[in-house]
Amino acid sequence: xxxxxxxxxxxxxxxxxxxxxxxxxxxxxxxxxxxxxxxxxxxxxxxxxxxxxxxxxxxxxxxxxxxxxxxxxxxxxxxxxxxxxxxxxxxxxxxxxxxxxxxxxx
Length: 106
What we know:
The structure is a single chain. The protein is α+β, with helices and mostly antiparallel strands. The protein has a domain at about 35-105. About 30% of the residues lie in helices and about 20% in strands. Strand 3 (about 70-75), helix 2 (about 80-90) and strand 4 (about 95-100) form a beta-alpha-beta unit. InterPro entries: NAD(P)-bd_dom_sf, ODC_Mu_crystall, ODC_N.
């Protein structure tokens, strides 16, 4: 059995894979110099974060009972603020509990 991978910074927890929101998006824009060279045309991380928040807001509106006003969030990485805002838009929150392995993000 292989030993567990270690984070290169010395963190005793196993190294984590790169974030799932790293997805470059390109589109084809023709120019005289490079007629078919792909050029970045969208910030994929922002698009992914916004669309995930929108889906969570819509799912909360359709699936959650109207009464609860407390949100427990598991994980507080880059998408967390948009997810909180999306839930709060459809169910006004009175309390928020955030759980994350990284103490700085709690």
